[in-house]
Fold these 2 entries.
Entry 1:
Amino acid sequence: MKKLLEDSLNKLSIEYDEEKLSKLERFYELTVEKNKVMNLTAITEPEEFVIKHFADSLAILNFISFTPGMRAADLGTGGGFPGIPLAVFHPEVNFLLIDSVNKKLNFISEVAAELGINNVETLHGRAEDIGHMEEHREKYDYVFSRAVSNMSSLSELALGLVRVNGIFVAYKSENSSEEVKTAARAIQLMGGIVDSEKTIILPNSDIKRNFFFIKKSNTTPKKYPRKAGEPTRRPL
């Protein structure tokens, strides 16, 4: 695993050291062990894990820059992706990992404690509710999501957390451009604009990852996000 991880990071031009590699390797071991009793991921083979979880999570570093003290949120983090790998590589940034499944967050907290990842916090709840909490509404420089929801729903859930001039980054699969066009109204209503789209082929694979960068240009109207379930049932 270590050799493939090093090769993937080299191909992504991402700097690393032994400590970062060790933390990712141990994160993998903990995930596979916990996965025996909890459904964290369907991907457990080392090579596939490196490509589809680690490289995929970290590839975004080709396109963004962090500065010390920034706040970032990972919406729908699941087993901790992309939040944990990004936190390992950028300890100067404060990460909030959000999910509606508390037992997954408990696992992430255990991982962070064991690996000494001190820049991660977790928050259990639905994005529709968290988006209205004063301590989280429009407070984040970056919000990331690898969630599978359609772009209209995701934009409503995520952009309420992004500060004005901050960025929502949606991890999407190949051929997602049409989905983003369909979400144009929702993005605009939430105070965002589509800033750019970037595509990368994950190293040692033929997997294309699309990143959509939604810039927050205006404040989100107070009525958004709508009540729990509405963004998914009735996308804007």
Note: The chain has a mean pLDDT of 95.
Entry 2:
Amino acid sequence: MNNKIVVFGATGYAGGLVVDALLRQGARPVLAAYERDLLPAMATRLGGLDYQFADVNDPGSVRALVSPGDVLITTVGPFERFGRTAAQAAADVGAHYIDSTGETGFVRDLRERYDAQARETGATMLPAFGNDYVPGVLAASLALTKAGAAARSVQVGYFVTPKFRPETGLSQGTRKTIANEMTRPVTLWRNSKLEDVRAASWTRKFTVGGKSKRAFLASGTEVFFLPEEFPSLESVEVYNGWFPEMSLGIQMFSAAANVAVKVDAGKKIVDSFGNRFAGAPGGPDLTERSKTRSCAVAVTRDGAGKVLSEVHVDGPNVYTLTGELMAWAAGELAAGAARTPGVVGPVQAFGLDGLVQGAAKIGLTEIDTNRQETRR
């Protein structure tokens, strides 16, 4: 690798997964965090890695992490609260950038704030480059390529097989994002323009593993990046099917929560619920992660609503996959393999063939649904 890779937030749950994945790939990342008691011990435990202290409240310390051409990976969230410092540093310096956000409002903000600057400085910035939302972009791009110019819409669904256990299968960061997103609008690509609607406004059924599973309308960066690659697209929708049996209940909760937050008392109740739902820091360990796999489904339709193509991609557990995807992308960026500077999506950065090949290396692949076997 030709340039330095820095993991900002290395002492956290997601950051630790990225560091482990980089080490498996043969890289020696620089660890960065603000915890002065944890960082040196972690660096020593992992074979004497270099480390630097940095704090989002001290922009200079974050900017000092990277030089032009280096790669800055950040897992420091919630990103709408803490993420702009790292993004600004990368855009200013001309360092490549990868984050683990699931907050599409943050991604939209990055595009508006930093795309032009990143193009000028040569930085390729890859927000949400994990299970949020690379598998959906991959599945949809493959499905749209198969469908051809007749495709006017694509619906993407995210699922977990065989089944997620909410009490043990989610990290604190994911829980916080889910709770926050329920009271924020979902952005769609509809009638060839971006449009905001209430989260979980409706549900849709997908076929996964031969079974019909319901998913609720959710956020996804597919709505930003797919229309740029496939200009004939008039509609892009993203759905979350992690808990199919709860989709209708989540739809009702979203409706009630969006009414409640309009008054102070209701907002306090919703915030209190979100804090309790978030739970303790950390996330599922290796044993727990090994029990589930990730799945993304993309269905394309023509202008009359006729299905043209359907693609399923299968990969490791959502957290394992996120760490591996970010590590792979970092290696590619450090080696100068990015095609396009700016705030871009996975296909814009690496090309569809490059993304397919890179995803396959970490076990994220298209599956033949006619021959699919249930994984347990």
Note: The chain has two domains: 5-130+321-357, 134-317.
